[in-house]
Structures are given as structure tokens and as C-alpha cells.
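Subject: design request, 261 residues
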């Protein structure tokens, strides 16, 4: 890698934003200012809420509960600070969620794009002509189609196909795209037929997606155990043991008052 190329490489934050689809001349600056604004806002709001009468009175009422009153009261007083920490991390969480959605969208579109390219190649079109047809037939706003359009502009600007494909894989950084690009570059170097490479790749990606979907479906009952226990078990305990617990607390309170008097 030349010195000019190394200077042109974006920083870690800029590259992370680029992988999430957030690009622009001032993307890093805007992200930094957003994080700073969230930090300042959290620092201003959290102390105000922690000292507000609502939280103080709620914590006092909770502290009167037997056994778990004191820990629950401390938790109520700490809730504003938990909200402040969440607000500080909100920009990072939003960028990460956007990156995850981008990866899912690319993995969904890649098998269809490869099948279309293979079909057009079997019809006698070259790779560039097939890619033009695919880009024109697909709706805009999809990450993979947008990156293929950028790849087409780079090739038309005089870049080599192999180098532009490598930059395409680097801009997306998605496993199936990286393996597909490596296969295309190898096929171009060896002079293999495009359709012979793309069709097996599309079939393999569809099979992998099918296996992942089946694995997620099989793991769904195990993932539902915790929400079911968290959502239904407390209600069942309150419904079944609530009256008995209320009588027990009343009895203990009567005994304690009688002992004190």
C-alpha cells in the first residue's frame, strides 16, 4: 500500500460510520457533536430528576416495604442515572442497529442479484452489461444496489475491475459479499465462465439462509422461556400468594406493635 493510499484511509470512527451507511464529509464531526450533546443533556437532566420530589417521595414510599424496601428505594433513586447512561450510549446503539439492518439487507439481496447476473450471463451478456441491467431493475435505496452502482462508476472512471471489487467488499464488509468478490476475482484471473461461478454461489447462499432460518426457528422456544417466566410468573405469584402474603405482613405488623407496646 502506498503512502497516498494510507493517508486516504478513514479513521476507525469514520469507517464504522461508513459501514453503517452514514457517509459524508462531516459525518464523524456530526457524530461526535451528537455524542457530546447527549452527554451534556444527561449530565443536566439526571441530577434534576434524582432530586425531584417524584423520585424522592417514591423512594420513601418504597423504603417502607418490609424486607426489600431499602434496596428497592436505592434502585428507584438510581433510575435517573441509568437513564442518563442509556442516553449517553444512544448514538452508539443507533449506529450499531443501522449497521445490523444494513448487513441483513445485503444478505437478503445478494442471492437474488447473483441469480440475475447468472441468468443474464447465460443469455450471452458480459458482467458489466449484466450488472447494468440488474441495477436498473432493482429499487433504489437498497445498500447492495447502491454499492454496485458506486462500483460501476469506479469502473467507468478507469479503475480495474479487481480493485473496484475489492473496494466494494471493503465498503460493505459482509462475509458473503467478501467470498463472492474473491470468487469473481479468481474467475476473472483464470478466465472461467461467469455463469458457472455465480449460479453455485447463489444456491449456496440460499441454502445457508435456509439453514440459519431453521436454526432460529428451532431456538425460538428456548428464547421464549425467559420472557414468559418474567412476564407471567410474577403475575401468577401475586395472584396466588398475594392474599396470603398480605395477611402474613399484617400479622407480623400486629405482633411487632403488640411487642412494642
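Subject: RE: design request

Done. Sequence follows.
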Amino acid at each position: 500500500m502506498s503512502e497516498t493510499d494510507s493517508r486516504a484511509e478513514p479513521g476507525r470512527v469514520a469507517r464504522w460510520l461508513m459501514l453503517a451507511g452514514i457517509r459524508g464529509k462531516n459525518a464523524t464531526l456530526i457524530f461526535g457533536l451528537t455524542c457530546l450533546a447527549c452527554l451534556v443533556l444527561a449530565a443536566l437532566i439526571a441530577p434534576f430528576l434524582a432530586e425531584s420530589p417524584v423520585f424522592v417521595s417514591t423512594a420513601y414510599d418504597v423504603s417502607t416495604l418490609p424486607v426489600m424496601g431499602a434496596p428497592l428505594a436505592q434502585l428507584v433513586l438510581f433510575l435517573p442515572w441509568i437513564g442518563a447512561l442509556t442516553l449517553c450510549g444512544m448514538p452508539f446503539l443507533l449506529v450499531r442497529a443501522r449497521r445490523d439492518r444494513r448487513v441483513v439487507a445485503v444478505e437478503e439481496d445478494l442471492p437474488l442479484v447473483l441469480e440475475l447476473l447468472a441468468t443474464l450471463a447465460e443469455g450471452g451478456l458480459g458482467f458489466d452489461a449484466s450488472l447494468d441491467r440488474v441495477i436498473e431493475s432493482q429499487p433504489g435505496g437498497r445498500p447492495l444496489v447502491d454499492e454496485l452502482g458506486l462500483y460501476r462508476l469506479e469502473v467507468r472512471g478507469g479503475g480495474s475491475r479487481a480493485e473496484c471489487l475489492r473496494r466494494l467488499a471493503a465498503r460493505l464488509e459482509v462475509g458473503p459479499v467478501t467470498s463472492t468478490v474473491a470468487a469473481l476475482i479468481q474467475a476473472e484471473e483464470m478466465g472461467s465462465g461467469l455463469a458457472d461461478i455465480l449460479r453455485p454461489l447463489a444456491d449456496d447462499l440460499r441454502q445457508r439462509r435456509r439453514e440459519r432460518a431453521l436454526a432460529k426457528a428451532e431456538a425460538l422456544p428456548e428464547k421464549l422461556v425467559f420472557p414468559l417466566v418474567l412476564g407471567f410468573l410474577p403475575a401468577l405469584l401475586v395472584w396466588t400468594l398475594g392474599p396470603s402474603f398480605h395477611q402474613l405482613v399484617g400479622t407480623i405488623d400486629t405482633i411487632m406493635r403488640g411487642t412494642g407496646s
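The chain is about 85% helix and 0% strand.
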